[in-house]
Amino acid sequence: MLSLHNLHAFYGKSHVLHGVHFEVRPGEIVALLGRNGSGRSTTVKTIMGLVDGTGSVKWKGSEILGRKAFEIAHAGIGYVPENRDIFPTLTVHQNLMLGEKRSGGGKPRWSFDDMYGMFPRLKERQHTEAGVLSGGEQQMLTLCRTLMGDPELIMIDEPTEGLAPKIVELVAEYLRELKRRGISVLLVEQKLTIALEVADRCLVMGHGQIVFEGTPADLRANAYIRKEWLEV
User: Fold this and answer.
1) pLDDT tens digit string along 1-60?
2) Domain harbouring 62, CATH code
3) Which of 115, 148, 156, 219 could be disulfide-bonded to 80 (CB atoms 3.0-4.6 Å)?
C-alpha cells in the first residue's frame, strides 16, 4: 500500500534520513520506534509532503514524493501530528466538521456517531471550544478529525505523549478499531508497551535509518536492539 525506497531528507544542510526503506501493507499496524532525533517524525512528514525528500514514496503504486500535502491527503493518507493542531476557537463538533471528507462517492466509512461512540467524552463536550479541552481530549479530537477524512492509511505521531494511563488505553482501543475496519496505520511511538500490544510489525530507527524490522515477538526477543536503539 505504502512503499518507501531509498528515502533521504534534509533540514537545510542537515541530512536527517539516510536511505529509508520499508512498506505498510493493507490493514496492518506498523510501529515506527526509536529515540528522539532518530528520524521517525521526519519520515512521516516527508511521506506527507511537509518535508522535502529524495528517493521514492509510492502510494498504491503511484509516486507521491514531491506532491503537495493536500493532494496526498485527498489520495487517502491521514496524518495526526504530534502537536495536535486543533482549531482552538472552534467547538469540538466544528473541528470534526472541518475534517469531514465530502465526495460524490458512497457512504463515508466514519460518522459523527462513530466518533462520539468511540470517545463519549467528546460527545459530552461537542459544543465546547477545543482550546479549553484537556490534553487527552485534544488528542482524541485530533484522532477523530483525521478519521472524518476517511483515510485508507493513517500516520499517527506520538499519540500517547504526555497522556494519563487511562487515556493511553483509549488510544490503544482506537487503534484496534482502525484495524478491525481494515485501515492501515503507521504509528510513531516511544512507548514500547503500546507498540508491542497493537502492532503487526515493528520498525526501529536509528541515525535516520531502519536498523530493525520484525514482529513484536521478534523485538521482545532481541535484547540487543532494545538496549542499543530504544532504551534510555
Assistant:
1) 999 999 999 998 899 999 999 999 999 999 999 999 999 999 999 999 999 999 999 999
2) 3.40.50.300
3) 156
Dist CA 152 CA 146 (whole Å):
11
Strand order in the sheet with 62-63: 14-24, 2-11, 53-59, 62-63
Strands 184-188, 29-33: pairing kind: parallel
Pairing outcome for strands 14-24 and 29-33 = unpaired
β-sheet bridge partners, residue 42: none
The total domain count for the chain is: 1
Summarize pLDDT for 177-192 with one digit per residue, the tens: 889 889 999 999 988 8
Cell reading at 192: 514500547
Which residues constitute the domain of residue 16?
Answer: 2-229
